[in-house]
Design brief:
By secondary structure, the protein is α+β, with helices and mostly antiparallel strands. The chain has 2 domains: 93 residues, no CATH class; 64 residues, Nucleic acid-binding proteins (OB fold (Dihydrolipoamide Acetyltransferase, E2P)). It is 44% helix and 21% strand. It contains 3 helices and 5 strands, in the order αααβββββ. The model has no long low-confidence stretch (mean pLDDT 84).
């Protein structure tokens, strides 16, 4: 049982070490472990496997099972936790990230008119909040829109200009 517990704590230590100084160790080895570059051999997966193997086998051994079934139970728990660590690592690495906000992201958003838009081919200025970023753009509308009114962004004319339409609000 002691050997299994030691393996469990060694696995936890490996996980803690990888969280604290994982990139430093990788940089210090300068590609010496490029053979093991796949996510399957990450320190999180190996540490999770060793830790779950040790603690699972120790629990089975403490429950009175012989050594061979305890090792099998430890191996099964190690594979399960290792797979879960691999899945989480892949999920984090391959997950979407917020890209740079562009003016095309403003289409469909609601903005506020800062400078009145006369209508036709003339321009005013609108302020739009896109994903927490405030954008200020020139705006054109078929209808005249007063300063302070809310508008819906309907299209992009250029990197600094959009087309808008007044937001319809029913009168009560």
């Amino acid at each position: 049982m002691t050997v299994f517990l030691v393996l469990g704590f060694v696995g936890l230590g490996l996980i803690a070490l990888s969280l604290i100084v994982g990139d430093v160790i990788d940089g210090a080895l300068s590609g010496a472990l490029d053979v093991l570059e796949a996510d399957v051999f990450s320190t999180a997966v190996i540490g999770g496997f060793v830790s779950a193997f040790g603690f699972g086998a120790a629990a089975a051994d403490g429950g009175g099972l012989p050594t061979l079934p305890a090792v099998v139970i430890g191996g099964a728990s190690g594979v399960l936790v290792g797979w879960f660590a691999w899945w989480l690592t892949r999920l984090v690495k391959d997950g979407p990230s917020d890209g740079t906000i562009s003016i095309s992201d403003a289409v469909g958003q609601v903005g506020k008119v800062l400078t009145a838009i006369p209508g036709g081919d003339s321009y005013g200025v609108v302020r739009i909040n896109v994903g927490g970023h405030v954008m200020q753009c020139n705006a054109s509308s078929l209808l005249a829109v007063d300063e302070g009114a809310e508008v819906s962004i309907t299209g992009v004319l250029s990197p600094t200009a959009v087309t808008v339409a007044p937001v319809w609000k029913p009168e009560s």
